[in-house]
Amino acid sequence: MANSTNRQILLVEKPTGKLSTDHFKMAEAAIPEPKDGEVLLRVRYISLDAANRAWMHGATYRSAVEANTVMAGGGIAEVVSSKAPGFAAGDIVFGDTGWQEYAAVPAKHLSKMPRIEPMTHLLSVYGIAGLTAYFGLLHVGQPKAGETVVVSAAAGSVGSIVGQIAKIKGCHVVGIAGGKAKCDWLKSDLGFDATVDYKDGAAFKALRAAAPKGIDVYFDNVGGDILEACIAQMNLRGRIACCGAISQYDGVPSATGPRGVPGLIVVKRLIMQGFIVMDYMDQRDQALKDLQSWVAAGKLKVQEDVIAGLENTPQALIGLLAGENRGKRMIKL
C-alpha cells in the first residue's frame, strides 16, 4: 500500500438547520486490519446521495450516523485483502464504506460487482441510481405505452434515468427540474417531451400545460408542494412511486404539503407506494441486463458528475442537496 494512514471525514456534529462544511472534519487513522469474515477495501468512488442527509436525522432503512464517527456512504471499492470466503484481492465491490480511503467491512454486507469500464457506471446506471429508477418506475409505477409519466428531480441521478426508461416504454414524459438550463438539457439531450421549471413559481400551471391529458404515473423524489401539485392532476387509477423527499431533508422540514391528499387518493383510486431498492435485489440480474442493453443501443444516456478528492466530499454533498448536479454525483479518490 502506497501510504500507511487512512484519511477519513468525520461528522463532528449533527446539523439542526442547513448542512454546512463546519459539520465535518478531516481526520487520519491507521489502516484497519480485517477480522475474520471481513474484507479490507480501498475505496475508489464514494456515492453522494440525498439519503446521506436523511441519515443524520435518525434511523431510516439504516442506523443513524452519530457525531464524531466516519460519515456513512456507499462506495465502489477494490479488495486489498480478504479474511472471508468468496472475496479475493482485486475484486470490485459495492458497500457501505463510509467517507474514507480504506475500510474493513463484513463480507456479508458487500456486493461483488462486474468489471465494467468506466467503473463510475457501477455507481450510476448499473448501481443504486439505475436500479432505483428501474424498479421504482417499472415495478411500482407500472407505466404503459401512451401514458403520461412525470418525474421530479428529473436532472438528478435517479430522475434522469427514470425519464429515459419511460421514453423507452413509449410514454409521454415530463420532467420537473430547477432552472432553464436543466430543463433544456432534459429535452435536447435526454429526449423528455416536456419540462417544468419548479423555480419559475407557476409550477402548477406549467404542469397542466406539460401534461394536458393528466398524469398516469408520478415518480416522486421530492415530496412537499410538488407532490401536492401532481396528486391534483393524477388520472383515475394513477400510480405514485415514492422514492424520496429531498425537499424535507436539509434544514428545518416544512410543514406544508401535500394537503387534501386522502380525499383525492380515494376519489381517483390512486396507488401511492414507497419502496427501497434493496427490496428488489433478487431481480438485479434482469434489471442489469435490460439497462446494459439500453445503454449499448444508445437509448439510455449516462450522465455523471465526478468530483476529485476526498476533502471535497462535504461541499459536494451540500451542492447536491442544493441541486447543483446533473446526473449521478460521486467523489473519485
For the structure shown, list the relevant keywords.
single chain, 333 residues, alpha/beta, Quinone Oxidoreductase, Chain A, domain 1, Rossmann fold, 7-stranded mixed sheet, 6-stranded parallel sheet, 9 helices, globular
What does this structure look like?
The protein has 333 residues and is of the alpha/beta class. It folds into two domains: 5-124 and 303-332, Alpha-Beta Complex (Quinone Oxidoreductase, Chain A, domain 1), CATH 3.90.180.10; 128-278, NAD(P)-binding Rossmann-like Domain (Rossmann fold). It is built from nine helices and 16 strands. Helix 2 crosses helix 3 and helix 2 (128-141) crosses helix 8 (284-296). It starts with a strand and ends with a strand. The mean pLDDT is 92.
Number of strand segments: 16
CATH fold label of the largest domain: Rossmann fold
Identify the CATH architecture of the largest domain.
3-Layer(aba) Sandwich
Q: What's the number of structural domains?
A: 2
The CATH superfamily of the largest domain is identified as NAD(P)-binding Rossmann-like Domain
Estimate the global geometry from the Cα principal axes. globular
Q: Helical residue percent?
A: 25-40%
The residue-averaged pLDDT reads: 92
**Class by helix and strand content?**
alpha/beta
Query: Nearest-angstrom radius of gyration?
Result: 20 Å
* Contiguous helical run count: 9
Low-confidence stretches: none
Q: Output the helix-strand order.
A: EEEHEEEEEHEHEHEHEHEHEHEHE
The first-to-last residue Cα distance is 15 Å
Roughly what fraction of the amino acids lie in strands? 25-35%
- Largest beta-sheet characterization: 7 strands, mixed
CATH class (first level) name of the largest domain:
Alpha Beta
